[in-house]
TrEMBL record, chains A, B:
<dbReference type="InterPro" id="IPR004045">
    <property type="entry name" value="Glutathione_S-Trfase_N"/>
</dbReference>
<dbReference type="Pfam" id="PF13409">
    <property type="entry name" value="GST_N_2"/>
</dbReference>
<dbReference type="InterPro" id="IPR040079">
    <property type="entry name" value="Glutathione_S-Trfase"/>
</dbReference>
<feature type="domain" description="GST C-terminal">
    <location>
        <begin position="88"/>
        <end position="222"/>
    </location>
</feature>
<feature type="domain" description="GST N-terminal">
    <location>
        <begin position="1"/>
        <end position="79"/>
    </location>
</feature>
<dbReference type="InterPro" id="IPR010987">
    <property type="entry name" value="Glutathione-S-Trfase_C-like"/>
</dbReference>
<dbReference type="Pfam" id="PF00043">
    <property type="entry name" value="GST_C"/>
</dbReference>
<dbReference type="InterPro" id="IPR036249">
    <property type="entry name" value="Thioredoxin-like_sf"/>
</dbReference>
<comment type="subunit">
    <text>Homodimer.</text>
</comment>
<dbReference type="GO" id="GO:0004364">
    <property type="term" value="F:glutathione transferase activity"/>
</dbReference>
<dbReference type="GO" id="GO:0006749">
    <property type="term" value="P:glutathione metabolic process"/>
</dbReference>
<dbReference type="InterPro" id="IPR036282">
    <property type="entry name" value="Glutathione-S-Trfase_C_sf"/>
</dbReference>
<dbReference type="InterPro" id="IPR004046">
    <property type="entry name" value="GST_C"/>
</dbReference>
<protein>
    <submittedName>
        <fullName>Glutathione S-transferase</fullName>
    </submittedName>
</protein>
<keyword id="KW-0808">Transferase</keyword>
Amino acid sequence: MPKLHHHPFSAASRYVRLVLAEYDETAEFIEEKPWLRVPALLQLNPAGTLPIFIDDNDTVVSGGAVVAEYLLETKGARMGEVRLMPEHAADRAEVRRLVEWFSQKLHGEVTNYMVTEKVYKRRMGAGEGNNSPDPAAIRAARANIRYHLQYIGYLAGRRNWLAGRELSLADFAAAAELSCIDYLGEVPWEADESAKAWYARVKSRPSFRSLLSDTLRGVPASTHYADLDF
Amino acid sequence: MPKLHHHPFSAASRYVRLVLAEYDETAEFIEEKPWLRVPALLQLNPAGTLPIFIDDNDTVVSGGAVVAEYLLETKGARMGEVRLMPEHAADRAEVRRLVEWFSQKLHGEVTNYMVTEKVYKRRMGAGEGNNSPDPAAIRAARANIRYHLQYIGYLAGRRNWLAGRELSLADFAAAAELSCIDYLGEVPWEADESAKAWYARVKSRPSFRSLLSDTLRGVPASTHYADLDF
């Protein structure tokens, strides 16, 4: 069985878990501490980031966007028609632009701050890093989520799914980020009805179930986290 | 003819110029000021970054990695065999991992500092941004380039090209970054023979010529910049 080195609050790992589930693939999940630089993991991925996917043939692939393209090419095509990536180059470019937007920009401006401050710093043991909280980081994330949510609402309001007519990798890249933030109760859903309606549709997919059962010792999920009618 | 909104010292723009030239494609180049947030460009690319490629059919594609994949799908395949991207999924994943490494990590840790401090800040007009130099940024970039050069040397020393046996997008993503830094005389080539030999090979390709003739008013190129036997 393939292996996935991940952390439940690594948004890129969640993205890969969603894509795997959409392709009806399973993997053995190995939980890592993303705040540590573990030599064995650096050997697999010099960037030191999660997720790292190891396929049955020992192919090692790392990084959310890169693993998703790999799964698309190796597993997505087995399902008759390739799923989660449109056929035409222009539409594919729009999917890739949005995957980068969510996994780099939204991640860097919101999720990374939230997860580092509210999850990773609570998990760090003695000598595992600087775990003193940074209120400025949380404030920045709370300001930034508002315009990201608005952009998601804008996209969802004029298209069927975020990148166009069909459900695509872009929807899962966005939902993976938002699901981390939503667990922490930090998505101001009331600010954008259109974004909320889109998220409810993604969240209802069977591929989302494993994310909704994630729990974190000492940090309970927001009351509506697993609620499909939030 | 397609259009490319670019700046000569935007490494991602250089990457796209190299890929275009490798595919024997031309485009009308429109120079932008990447330090400004121009409404007309933000409408084309909400991320506000260069390059932005507009194809003959008015398809708008933005971001170096995304444009390169688009060119691969629309132009690369027309040349009999697809060039710059290997056939097998595992090898493609390695190309994409390295493109991300160079255009995100090397860029963020080296090129962006160098170009912002030494090029963009000199170009900024009154009211176009904070143009006071930051010596700490240059120091960080000078420290970081050394381990990036070492990694390039390590890859080039055990493979024919950076991502494997064949020349690929990864070589051009790396060379696009290094060429900006090399113009400024900030690549310590003496520190890694293997990296230097690899760069000499990439630099000798006809696709590189237009980059080597780039000049910047007030900032002359390093003496060896356009020298193929540097």
